[in-house]
Design goal:
By secondary structure, the protein is mostly helical. It has one domain. Helix 1 runs antiparallel to helix 2. The longest helix has 25 residues. It is globular and about 45 Å long.
Amino acid sequence: MPLDAYIEQFCDRWRQRADSYGTQKTEDWFDRFFTLWVQFNVLYTEVASRTGKVGLPDDSAAQDNLLHYLTATAFVTEMNADKAVTDALAAIEAFLEAHEYCLKLDRRTGARQPEEDEKILAGLRSNAKNGQGKAVLEALYCVRCNIFHGHKAFDPVQVALLRPMIVVLEKVIDLTRQRLRQ
């Protein structure tokens, strides 16, 4: 089933908005991530609709259901075939390994959960495609939650994390659109 023209146009408009932001100001990076997430949200909601999983919690729709739909093998193979993405994922791994950023924060207090970040790091380094794919999508979703729910400070230091996350998010959006078009 082809992707509905409305969704194609919606995604094109939101990608253009995301591409219109500069790179000099901290808020540009936050705005770009927010804007890309709007597009991604529509896409993983469409996946949920097509798979009969309407009403899934947002995190399940954006992670588990999406990974199942894309298939972990195809998803990870495509991610690993793109040098910009592998470089971005390596940067994210380095941040997690050095404990420079904490992706998993307590939902109520914003307290760091380093043991949960270690699980994401192990997944990113896993040889299992499902573990890798889940870790990529979980890392993205954690950043989304931290930003949308106010646990990540609007601080220039966050740009170092947002840059690689945006590269990964753009690739996930592109792969999801491609699969939805089939």
